[in-house]
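U., I forgot to send this yesterday:
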Amino acid sequence: MLQELKDDKVRDPAGYLTLAYFSLQLGDPGTYLACASEALKVDPNNIPALKINVSSHLFFNDYKGALPIINRILKLDKKDADTYGQRAYCHAHMDMSKKATADYSKATKLGSQSRITFDAGGLLEFGERDYAEAAELFARVLEPIDKAQKDKMMIALTDLEQSIVVHEARLSFGVALFSQGKFVEASKHFTKCLGQSSEEGSQNLLLWLYMCNLKAGDAATARTTVAETMKRQEKVLRTGSTVNFLGMLLVETDDDKVAAFLRERRKRNAPCDGDTAYLAGKWAQWTGHEELSESYFGLAAQQKRAHFLTASLAEWEIAEEEGVLKASARKGATEKRRSTGRRQICGRDRSGGSGR
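Result:
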């Protein structure tokens, strides 16, 4: 169909955009993107086609690549609320909080109700450690879209972009609950998400579920719950850092052996995604293996682009630990000064007394 449009030398971008939309619904993202490119050849300033290009960059977490296209759209339409939301989302993921906050404020003032705007807001609130507000915004992302809104969004906010934002928000909402200490609620949410995720996407959810159950109840309950879930998804958990860590937690009741396993993986510099690194650090913290928690939190903090939330949490953990150490060091220095002062005073007193 695309070739037919090209052969007919169609000069109306609407034809390409209609084909782009239906191609995506049929699971053909290649044609979808090719149609946008053809539309832009006809009209380089066609905003719907430019937005398709933005969505393709966001789908692959290419926030830097999306920004020039977003800026171009906003030059063409300075009141495009949802595009400000897209830029806020990019800036948030790039750890540019001031720019993200300015764009998010602009998007909301202009009335944006898009999922990506709510997600950007959630990321910003999470970065400020307002986990309750972040959870509310992530929950907005997960709300169903009514038909009127879908029709309005048809091309401007595409399903390609929506899929990655919703997938991200499912995990983000649970992480926000976890960060508030609402482990039972988070456990229920992650359990629900497991039924909505692909096998590949289930791995980290299972690890979060295990950690929630571990904190909400006991290790035995956590093992039983996650093991039962794994039986229902036999094809999940074959390889990868999450698999190895979760598998070790399920089969080993000796915390020191789990710690030795994690320590060996760090020594070998084995691959580890941000979520797994953070949860490994959290597990080590809970079980009293402080040097191990510090190492894994450091690893998680390095992965902010791909794992923004857990990297942010890891940064806070490191900052708090450094704060404790600094406070301890200050306290130690103060005690030393006081002790030295007392010795000096005692020394002067003794010398003075002997002089008399």
